[in-house]
Structure formats: structure tokens, C-alpha cells
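Case study.
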Amino acid sequence: MANLAEVVNQNLQQDGSRVTLKLMRMAEEKVTLPRTRRSRPGDAARLLVSVLREVDETVLPRQITLATDTGHRAELTVSNRRLKALAIGDMPCDEPSDPDSAARLFAARLAALVEGAERVTFSYARCAAGFSQRTIGCSARSLAAAAGVNPVTTGQGRTIEGFLGSISAHCLAWILTEQDGRLRRGGDPVRREALLAFRDEARPDPQARFDTRAAKCTVLPLPNGELLVSARDTSSTLQALLPAQALPEVVAAWQLRR
Amino acid sequence: MTVADRLDRLRAVADGCSLAAFGDLRTRLMLRVSSDHPWPQERLDELCTQAVRCFDRADSSAISSHLLGGARGVVNEALELGDNEIKLFVRSDADPSDVICCVCHSLTDLPVLTNAARDVMRDI
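After joint prediction, the assembly is written out as follows.
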């Protein structure tokens, strides 16, 4: 995270005070950020998925207090997208010996906790100073597998190939570059050449630090009424042009790709 | 009306909008956020970085020279698709480092959010 004081100083010294003025204006406004989050209502499986999503989205060490509308409470210690410890009421907080045991134990306890509930509330706090990163814990994906619910967010295991298969009928042109450099293409030859130029100009962002392995899909609505779609996963990259009306198909295909 | 008030209003135009944020692309800072739950700072940083990456691509010369055939036009909107959510980035026409980010869960929210984000951008 950028240091605010450094940014202010840098901008004062460099190109004037534009950003500094923005920062000063924001600093003058008092804002109270929410400290809790309520899930959407749902059955036990859906609530369990919302708990796993909290785990999957938490990178820095956090103490998450989960309260159900049936009156149960649990303390989750989460760090680096892993559930490190789970304490439910007076139940002793076990320390599983390996990630698989942790996933089975935590998944069973969480499933029992949300059984019969229709809504859960999350509260967040920083972990105590003595928090140990060495605790084994388990990922949200392992928890999902142990609990028998669908995985949460990462999109790993799904393919660009499947995505292309779903949208190719709508594409004006597309190019797919595989990891070994092999190129496949389809559609209008002029647009394909343009997509090649775009692909060659795009470079990975050196400052990107998160989710570098996760599949990504960006859609740019162009002024000429076409959509420029760029998607990648660990095995291939795809660039495609589609008419703007095909946006619903693109979104659905990305979210359901296999 | 403060920027925070405007972002709260923006988020309220679509039920499925869980976050609206105003940021600076050049410094990669989210300056003000309205959300239905606290977003960790690292996720806000990531969101801003995603916006930067989107508009870096949007500004590539390949788009103007090849895809638009030299025609004038700036791409000031971008979408990043997730498995469960859609991130909408709207860049200011007047100041290309100002950006508004919205996170929503449904495609049907996009038109109203895009228009509302443009209005907020003009007012900020």
C-alpha cells in the first residue's frame, strides 16, 4: 500500500498539487466505514458458501466473528486466504495436524453452525499481536470440497477454451494464444490482424501483486460499438471482438465456463 | 454534498451494487469508498490496480490505429468479469486519472450504474 505522506510529498515536489488537493479534500470529509456485513438470506449451503467466500477474500490476518440468526457464534482466524483456527462457543479450539484434517474438521463444524440459519453476520477485527502464521489451517477451496459445496471464487480449473467455445458464435474475430505460443484464430481477417497488434502491445503489469494465477477477463466497450474482450488463464490468452449486444452472452459464458 | 454522500447515492441506484469507490489512477489510490461491508485495503489497492491495467489497455495505440482504424475516440469504460461479480470502471472525460469503480452482481445493473457513475464523476 502506498504511504499517504509519501504520495503527498511526491506530488508537491513534482507536478503540482492536483492529487494533494484531492487528498486534502477527502481528509476533510468524515466517513464511518461499516464494521459488519450481513449475508444475503439463504439455506445452509448458501450460507456456508458465503462463509468460505470471507475466507477466500481475506489476505491479511483477521479475526472474523460469525453470528447466525439462530443465536450461534464462532470466531474464525483467517490469514492469507486460509482458515487458520475456528472457535465455536465453549467448544475447544482444536489444532489439526494437516490441511486435510483441518478442512474436514472446520467444514463439519461450520456446516453444523449454519444448519437451520437463514442469515449470518460477520464482524471484523485485526488479529492479536501474538497471532501465529505457522498454524496449518486450510484454504476455502479445501473447505468447499470437504463440505461438498461449490468452490468459491478463484476460477482455477476452468478454461479459456471453454469460454471461447461459448462465445465463438457471437465473435466477429478472435485469436487464442496457447502457452507454447501456438496461435489459433477465427473470424474476419482484418479484425484478427488488429487483435494480434493489440495482443503484442499488451504487457503484464509489473506492479500486479494479487491473483496472478487467477483467470481474468476484461471487456472494453469501443466507441465503434464493438466489445474488445481480453481473457487469460494459466494456459492461454484470448482476444476477441464482438458486437456490443453480445455482452450478456460474454458475461454468462465467463461465469459458467468449464 | 460530500464525495462519500455521492458514492452512497451511486451505490443505492442498483440493489446489487456492493461497492462504489472514487480513486486516482496515477497514484493507484482509492480515495473514498462506499461499500456494504469493509473491504480490506489490499483489495482496494488491487481494485485500483485492475482499473489501471484496464485503461492501460484501453489507451494502447493498437486500439486507435488498428481496431478503430485511426478514428477518434477514447475508451473510458471497462469491465472486469469475475465468477460472481462484475467490476465496472468509469474514467473521467475531463481528468484521465479520476476513476469510479463499482462492484455489482448482475448485468442488469450495469446501464444504470454506468450512467449514474458518469453523473457522479461530473459532480466531483
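Observations recorded in class. Chain B touches chain A through 52 residues (CB under 8 Å). Helices of chain B lie at 3-12, 41-58, 61-67, 110-123. We will return to this complex in the next lecture.
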